[in-house]
């Protein structure tokens, strides 16, 4: 998909703020600082559509971006950020549970992981949670520009085994730095929002 139109719609914390247009949604889940917002920017060719930062824990709300009047990217706040208080973490958990269990227009959750490292316990928990609720999952291994190609197979195996990934679930490699993998990811997304 060639994106000419991408716009920020709303930062939502509860269902009454979710858009009511019924367009399909693709959610980005993953550890804080893994590259979810950078992914949205790269895919839409926009440097600052989604806020990114070297400071983790920036995204605290479900941020909706409308793409070409066709679907929404939903930037989900990242987990695993140590400096978040217990109360905030509980609120975060509730917000995500509500979203993922109730959102009927959700077509795909993209679990974003750092290709350099094995999935964390939080990553695995998120994946298992999504599978439990029968939400289609794509694992997106990002920051692949930081790994030499000769080691990709090895790293892919580590990711697959770390998640104990269902054979039906795919891992796609991606880099927000170089745009590597963009076409494959677009193909995958276009299938899901048909
Ligand atoms: P939270 O909003 O805190 O959950 O983080 P996030 O997952 O949205 O991460 P973000 O997109 O803000 O990226 C975090 C940092 O990683 C930034 O400094 C990005 O420039 C960097 N980064 C993201 N993707 C890539 C990538 O593919 N390659 C490289 N080299 N750096 C990346
Ligand atoms: Mg972010």
Q: What is the H/E string?
A: EEHEEHEHEHEH
Return the average pLDDT rounded to an integer.
94
Relative strand content:
15-25%
Ligand names: guanosine-5'-triphosphate, magnesium ion
- Any idea what the CATH architecture is? 3-Layer(aba) Sandwich
CATH class designation: Alpha Beta
Number of domains: 1
Please give a handful of descriptors for the protein shown:
Rossmann fold; 22% strand; 194 residues; 5 helices; 7 strands; alpha/beta; binds guanosine-5'-triphosphate
Task: Describe the fold and architecture.
- The chain has 194 residues and is α/β, with parallel strands linked by helices.
- It has one domain (6-192): 3-Layer(aba) Sandwich (Rossmann fold), CATH 3.40.50.300.
- It contains five helices and seven strands.
- The chain has helices spanning 36-43, 86-102, 121-132, 152-163, 182-192, and strands at residues 6-12, 25-30, 62-67, 71-75, 106-114, 137-142, 170-173.
- The chain has a seven-stranded mixed beta sheet, with helices on both faces.
- The structure holds guanosine-5'-triphosphate and magnesium ion.
- Guanosine-5'-triphosphate binds next to α1.
Protein topology:
Elements: E1 6-12, E2 25-30, H1 36-43, E3 62-67, E4 71-75, H2 86-102, E5 106-114, H3 121-132, E6 137-142, H4 152-163, E7 170-173, H5 182-192
């Amino acid at each position: 998909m060639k994106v000419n139109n991408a716009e920020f719609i709303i930062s939502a914390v509860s269902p009454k703020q979710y858009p009511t247009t019924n367009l399909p949604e693709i959610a980005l889940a993953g550890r804080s600082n893994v590259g979810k917002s950078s992914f949205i920017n790269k895919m839409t060719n926009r440097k600052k559509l989604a806020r990114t930062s070297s400071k983790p824990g920036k995204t605290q709300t479900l941020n909706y971006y409308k793409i070409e009047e066709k679907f929404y990217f939903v930037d989900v706040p990242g987990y695993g950020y140590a400096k978040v208080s217990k109360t905030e973490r509980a609120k975060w958990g509730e917000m995500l549970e509500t979203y993922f269990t109730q959102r009927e227009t959700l077509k795909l959750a993209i679990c974003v992981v750092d290709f350099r490292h094995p999935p964390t316990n939080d990553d695995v928990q998120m994946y298992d949670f999504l599978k439990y609720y029968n939400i289609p999952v794509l694992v997106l291994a990002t920051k692949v520009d930081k790994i030499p190609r000769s080691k990709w197979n090895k790293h892919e195996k580590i990711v697959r085994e770390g998640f104990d990934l269902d054979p039906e679930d795919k891992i796609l490699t991606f880099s927000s730095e170089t745009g590597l993998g963009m076409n494959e990811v677009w193909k995958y997304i276009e299938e899901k929002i048909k």
